[in-house]
Amino acid sequence: MTVVIEISGLRKTFSSLRRGRQTALDGFDMAVEAGQVHGFLGPNGSGKTTTLRTLLGLVSADEGEMRILGKPSDEYAEVAHRVGAIVESPAFFGNFTGRRTLRLLATAGGVPPKMVDSALEQVGLRDRADDRVKTYSLGMKQRLAVASALLKSPELLILDEPANGLDPAGIHEMRTLVSGLAASGVTVLISSHILAEIELICDTVTIVSRGRRVVAGPVAEVLASHAKGEFRVGAADLPRTIDLLTAVGGSIVAGEGHIVVGGIADPARISEVLGKAGIWVTELTPITPDLESVFLDLTGTRPTPGVTRQVNDPPGTGQVIDISDETTTGESA
């Protein structure tokens, strides 16, 4: 399988008068294979946006190697026409219409004008294309940003929070769009905080915390590797079921009309114990964690009851990279 994004040992630090030298990326690694929808996840300040900006040549790395579409980072200009990207919230002229905005971008990028209508259609903005951007909702502006990234019919699409501001219907449309692009052979890298969507749409995932990769791989394998070996069990006689499974080493948590059984690795053993006692099993389902729970555990961001998490203001000097992601300041690219 062809690897379209390769990042190895990426390190980046920023200066702050208040905090001194801050490390945004500390030996970060990531690989994205062609044709995948790859989720890129991390808490605020974990290094996601810095990674994307560095990959696209907007910020220089201190150390490490990067290749995109087979080219090293210092030769990115040779493949830039094959990459579409939105990183952070793009700014548009409010008095321009959506169509005029895309036409200007197409002209600047040497893209045929016919691609404008195609991009507007893809993101569901055809009916509002001739309205001024200042009348657009946040979600509509996000759609326009995605449309701008699609103008070049890219082989690689990099999307930073593409569902930001979208309602449930819009999120569904964005999911359908990304799935369709992947089916047509486009590789998509998505950075998002909407973990349920990442779990639904992505083939593979990389999770970063404090500038380091904490896990990477196919979504199903990442989830399965963090399963606790528990089963949801339903039976006609739950009190007796609890006694029987406890007697053979099971740990039991009672639920509403079911129990959760741990400590018994083989589900056949549960069936055997209950079957010999004449108890019909109505449900025996392995419990696999969702991406949100795995993310919270791996990044140490699971909320503690009764504790309010405080987010520090970004330093007031230098160029703020992204107050929604990185909390350090950056240097001019």
UniProtKB/TrEMBL annotation:
Gene3D superfamilies: P-loop containing nucleotide triphosphate hydrolases (3.40.50.300). Signal peptide: none annotated. Residues 5-235 form the ABC transporter domain. One of its GO terms (molecular function) is ATP hydrolysis activity. Keywords: ATP-binding, Nucleotide-binding, Transport. PROSITE patterns: ABC_TRANSPORTER_1, ABC_TRANSPORTER_2. Belongs to the ABC transporter superfamily. This is ABC-2 type transport system ATP-binding protein.
